Amino acid sequence: MRLFGTKFFSLVFILSMLVSCSTVSKSKMDEVAQRVKQQLEDVYHQKFTVKDVKYMPLDNAYKIEFYETDNPDISFYTKVDRNTNNVTFDTYNESISNDKVTKWMVEPYIDKISNDWFGYGDISGGDPDPINYDTLKDYENALSSNKKNALSFGAEISINMKITPQNVVNLLIYIYQFGKYVNSYNFKYIDLNVKVYTLPDGVTAQEYSSSDKDTYDFKKQDVLKATLKVSTKDIDSYKMSSPMDLAKYLNIYKDNKESTLINDKPLYSKVQYLYYSWERKKFNNMF
């Protein structure tokens, strides 16, 4: 199903023969997009849908966006260069890898915070590459056996929820657990970037994150309520022993002012109370 080795170069050669366009009319762009789509489907044995096609004058190239018809989360761009007649689409494999990492490693934690979120996980820097594994267990085994780990892990996550003490506690607990889980594989670099929005009814995190913010009748500063950025040094096992250690990295936006959770005394005191009540309950359930 996936494209490797000589198949890649063969497909590039086949696709390059499709493009000898002398115009940039919409009908011609649509024609090129459909021909590329057919060639992709013949090689990948996968159905694709054309999402968008544009002409880029500075590059003298067509930029075509596709997604897997049965899995719209896997999208990628194909660039058709009219100068050289070359066609490239290497972002497809990257999109497949990101989709696996998101579903395997990110989703189980973020789903516990909110059922309305959008984002992705990304592992880069070499092998083992998620694209070569069919299950999370197999990939985790490969990560664990990789002694010279030079890989980097990144995640960009947008969450739609209200800032309440209980929601903040859940955010701290599960981002902490997520960070510790990721850190257990000794990635060289880790970068987690979480944004919390409180969006109007009818607007989802995916819609807002994937669209032009200027198209909405509200401003970003009116709906952005918190940010949490955690990097490798912050989640080192020797520097963090509790979800509450994340409080100093959580920025709260209120009344056009920014402060860390620790400095928002009323909210912080309620969060502390709820968190330590949860800790006591968890401890009592052990006996």
UniProtKB/TrEMBL annotation:
Protein name per Swiss-Prot or TrEMBL: Lipoprotein
The entry's keywords: Signal
Organism this protein belongs to: Pseudofrancisella aestuarii
Keyword Signal: yes
Signal peptide coordinates: 1-25
UniProt-listed PROSITE patterns: PROKAR_LIPOPROTEIN
